[in-house]
Predict the 3D structure of the following.
Amino acid sequence: MTGKGKSRWANDEEDAALEAQKKREKEEKKRIKTEKARKLEEEKQAREAKERKAAEAQRQDHDEDEDATRPPAKRRRISPERESATAATTTGGSSKLLRFEGGAFGRCRSVENYDKLNDIEEGAYGWVARAEEKTTGKVVALKRLKIDPKDRSGLPVTGLREIQILKDCDHRNVVKLREVVVGDDTSKIENIFLVLEFVEHDLKSILEDMPEPFLASEVKTLLLQLASGVAYLHDNWILHRDLKTSNLLLNNRGQLKIADFGMARYVGDPPPPKLTQLVVTLWYRAPELLLGAARYGQAIDMWSIGCIFGELLTREPLLQGKNEVDELQQIFELCGLPTEETWPSFRRLPNARALRLPPKAPGAASGSAVRARFPLLTGAGVSLLNSLLTLDPERRPSAREMLAHEYFRQDPKPKVEAMFPTFPSKAGQERRRKRQTPLAPVRGQAVELGSVDFSGIFSGRDREERGGGFSLRMV
């Protein structure tokens, strides 16, 4: 019996080797395909990472540009005791935010908290009255801002500036603002009052009633306080722009305070290129303002101080012009004619181009007449007054330079404030009588002088021979 035979379809060793080779080739192709897919994925991820990095850099550049024009964002600050105690945070304790106590906006108090006692005066920008606070009995000055109810622009810029400047100022020679109060009828914008510290006198009323002028030591004390207050204002970039004796208050302890900031404003260095020319009361207005200067600085306040200096010596305003032309004429008669040497930029001012000035004759007296006007003033005093009343604003001293002047170191020394004489207070007892002093200018257009002839203002000067304390007229 024979055994069963092998099928011809059975796999032999050759078939097995071939099958194994095909399997290896298939796995190799799969590996190559997988490796290619992996490389493509890596390239894609690298490309996306590069794009994200470029976008992040661009966004940072943009943020830096924005940060240059806006304040930095605030970070949440943690109080030190909570920040150092890390155990409290790990055990579930919450960190406490760092907080500071600060003021908050609220309603203004009512003017009904004050009892009006009497009127004091009316100025260009408000009415002033004496009042008493009901709860404390403290006497204050109430200034009601002048606001036209028909004006739809709201609170005038002069009132806003006065409130802002008075709230920012803290100096013993500047009047203090206690608060701002309103009337009960808040629908009327004109019922806005400034509550100021009450000061018994102003220099104008004292000078009008004094039988004799201030002593030299008293004048020095008043000027030192005035220069100290103005130096503080100028150091803080504030121009008063209406210094005059009626805006200088004096209490019964000999302390002077600068008041009435209705025309004051903040300025920078250099000052704004275009400022209003219609500032400062006429008798205290600097010549560059009268000639139409649109750019000015601290020198206009220093000119006003010079006018106040002369008024303290004579008890009457130094330059009482009837209008802008007459004021200029009186300035030139006292301080001399402007020349290329004394005031190089004079002719470039708008209102100076049409002025006709007399020719300077050899030997003619056309310079400053301050020495002849104040024969009893010391040499240092004349030097200080001449420097304050210099026509060229660039040559006037600053308030700090004025405080260091030799005039205040000479005898007689400035009087101690506590030794100042006292006067009956008009503001505290009765209505102030109407003054003849011109009011501060109202905001508007600048004054055009036109063609003015000053050629004859020094006629007759050559017939005078001036000496110290007297004048001789040749006949």
